[in-house]
C-alpha cells in the first residue's frame, strides 16, 4: 500500500481534532449543567389523626449530638422499610390539629447511583467568624428582586425559601425540637419582603396614591430580574444625579419591611423525630410550610447534584435573616469543606436566624445557554457534630442536602401528586 495523499489525510486529521475539541467542550460544559435525575416516587399509604401537640418546646440556637461523616459511616445502610418510616410525616394544621401519614417508596432501585460519600476526611479547626464575609442586602432594589426575594422570615425566628407560589422550605428544628412543636408553631407566620416606600407615595398628576407607581414597579420587575441574573450589571444606568444626591434618610426609607402571611399547614418528616433514626436526625432537618395566601413573588426550584465539591469552585450561596442584623437580609457564599450523602459541611459566616435558608448554586439548564439557580440544600445552622461516633464534639456549619429521595418527598408535599415528581 502506497503513501496516503496529503489531500486525503488532511481532512481526516482536521475531523479528528474537531471531534476531540467538541468532546472536551461537552465535558467542560457538562460540569456547568444541571444533571438530570430520575427520582423515586413517594406515595401516601394512609393518614390517621393524632392528638394535638403541647407546643411546649423552645427554640435552640445550636444543635448538638449530630452524627457526623465518620460517625455515619459506622451506621448500617437504611433498608427500604427504614426509609419509608423516615419519610412518613406529620402534618400540623393552623387550628392545632395533627395527622400522621405513612408512605411507600417506589422505584428506588431505578435511581442513578447516589454517592454515599464524596468527601475527604480531613480535619479543620473552625474559625469562628474571623473576618465577616456576609453582605447586608438592605436596598429594596436588590432585596425585593430575585433571587433575594425568595428568602422569607419565619415567625419562630428562622429563615426559609419559597419553593412554589405558596410553599416555603425551612429547617425542621425551626418548628419542632424532635420531641414537641415549638411554642410559636401553632400560630406560625411567614414574612415576605416588601417595599416600605410603596405605601403612602403616589405618582405625579392624576391617579392618587401609589397605583401608578406600583404598576411602574411591576412593569420593570422582569427587567430588573434579568439584570440580576447577569450579575447585577447595568442597574446603575440611568440614575444620573439622583444617585449622587442620595442621603442616609432616603436609603433608610428604601429598606424593606415584611408582609406577614399565616401558614395553613406544616409537614415534617418522621426522620427528624427523636428515637426514629438512631443518629440520622440531622439528615432530615427540613420542613415545608403551605401558606394560606400565595405571595406574588417568584420562587426558586429544587435541584439535585451528586457532589458540590466536584463542581467548578465548589461554591454555595444562601441568604437569611441573621439575628445580629435585625430587619435586614444577609447574603453569603463560600466553598464546601466536607460533604456526605446527606449533609454539607462548610464555614460560611452565619448567625442564628439564618437557619432554614435555602442553599443554592447556579448551573446551566440542559441544552440551553441560560443559567438557572436551584436549591440544593437547607441551611441547618451551627452544630456540634459527633465526628467519630466516640462522643467527641466538633463544631461545623451544616446544611441538609437535597437527595433524590428528599426531592421526591418535598415535591410530593408541594404538588400533592407524585406523578409530577419523577424527574429532577
UniProtKB/TrEMBL annotation:
Signal peptide bounds: 1-22
Biased composition (Basic and acidic residues): 218-237
Subcellular location: Secreted
Gene Ontology CC: one annotated term: extracellular region
Gene Ontology molecular function terms on file: serine-type endopeptidase activity
Skewed-composition ranges (Basic residues): 196-217, 238-248
Residue ranges, annotated region (Disordered): 192-260
GO biological process, one term: proteolysis
Annotated keywords: Glycoprotein, Hydrolase, Protease, Secreted, Serine protease homolog, Signal
Listed InterPro entries: Glutamyl_endopeptidase (IPR050966), Peptidase_S1_PA (IPR009003), Peptidase_S1_PA_chymotrypsin (IPR043504), Trypsin_dom (IPR001254), TRYPSIN_HIS (IPR018114)
Chief location bin: secreted
Span of domain Peptidase S1: 141-184
Pfam families: Trypsin
Family of the protein in this entry: Belongs to the peptidase S1 family.
Identification of the protein by name: Inactive serine protease 35
Species whose genome carries this gene: Lates calcarifer (Barramundi)
Species lineage: Eukaryota, Metazoa, Chordata, Craniata, Vertebrata
Amino acid at each position: 500500500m502506497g503513501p496516503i495523499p496529503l489531500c486525503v489525510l488532511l481532512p481526516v486529521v482536521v475531523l479528528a481534532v474537531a471531534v476531540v475539541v467538541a468532546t472536551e467542550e461537552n465535558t467542560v460544559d457538562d460540569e456547568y449543567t444541571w444533571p438530570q435525575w430520575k427520582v423515586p416516587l413517594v406515595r401516601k399509604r394512609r393518614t390517621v389523626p393524632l392528638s394535638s401537640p403541647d407546643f411546649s418546646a423552645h427554640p435552640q440556637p445550636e444543635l448538638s449530638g449530630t452524627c457526623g461523616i465518620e460517625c455515619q459511616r459506622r451506621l448500617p445502610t437504611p433498608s427500604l422499610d427504614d426509609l419509608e418510616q423516615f419519610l412518613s410525616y406529620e402534618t400540623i394544621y393552623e387550628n392545632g390539629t395533627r395527622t400522621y401519614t405513612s408512605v411507600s417508596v417506589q422505584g428506588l432501585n431505578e435511581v442513578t447511583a447516589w454517592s454515599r460519600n464524596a468527601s475527604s476526611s480531613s480535619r479543620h479547626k473552625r474559625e469562628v467568624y474571623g473576618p465577616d464575609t456576609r453582605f447586608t442586602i438592605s436596598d429594596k432594589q436588590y432585596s425585593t428582586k430575585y433571587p433575594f426575594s425568595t428568602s422569607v422570615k419565619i415567625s419562630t425566628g428562622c429563615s426559609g425559601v419559597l419553593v412554589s407560589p405558596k410553599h416555603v422550605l425551612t429547617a425542621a428544628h425551626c418548628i419542632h425540637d424532635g420531641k414537641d412543636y415549638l411554642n410559636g408553631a401553632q400560630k406560625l407566620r411567614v414574612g415576605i419582603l416588601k417595599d416600605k416606600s410603596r405605601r403612602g407615595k403616589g405618582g405625579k398628576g392624576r391617579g392618587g396614591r401609589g397605583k401608578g407607581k406600583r404598576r411602574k414597579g411591576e412593569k420593570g420587575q422582569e427587567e430588573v430580574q434579568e439584570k440580576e441574573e447577569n450579575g447585577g450589571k447595568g442597574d446603575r444606568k440611568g440614575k444620573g444625579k439622583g444617585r449622587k444626591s442620595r442621603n442616609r434618610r432616603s436609603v433608610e426609607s428604601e429598606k424593606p419591611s415584611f408582609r406577614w402571611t399565616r401558614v395553613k399547614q406544616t409537614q415534617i418528616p418522621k426522620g427528624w423525630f427523636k428515637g426514629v433514626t438512631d443518629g440520622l436526625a440531622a439528615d432530615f432537618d427540613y420542613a415545608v410550610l403551605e401558606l394560606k395566601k400565595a405571595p406574588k413573588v417568584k420562587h426558586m426550584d429544587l435541584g439535585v447534584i451528586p457532589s458540590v465539591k466536584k463542581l467548578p469552585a465548589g461554591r454555595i450561596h444562601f441568604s437569611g435573616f441573621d439575628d445580629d442584623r435585625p430587619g435586614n437580609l444577609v447574603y453569603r457564599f463560600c466553598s464546601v469543606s466536607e460533604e456526605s450523602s446527606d449533609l454539607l459541611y462548610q464555614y460560611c459566616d452565619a448567625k442564628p436566624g439564618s437557619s432554614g435558608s435555602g442553599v443554592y448554586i447556579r448551573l446551566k439548564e440542559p441544552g440551553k445557554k441560560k443559567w438557572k439557580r436551584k436549591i440544593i440544600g437547607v441551611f441547618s445552622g451551627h452544630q456540634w457534630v459527633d465526628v467519630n461516633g466516640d462522643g467527641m464534639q466538633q463544631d461545623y456549619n451544616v446544611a441538609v442536602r437535597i437527595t433524590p429521595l428528599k426531592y421526591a418527598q418535598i415535591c410530593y408535599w408541594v404538588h400533592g401528586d407524585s406523578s409530577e415528581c419523577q424527574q429532577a
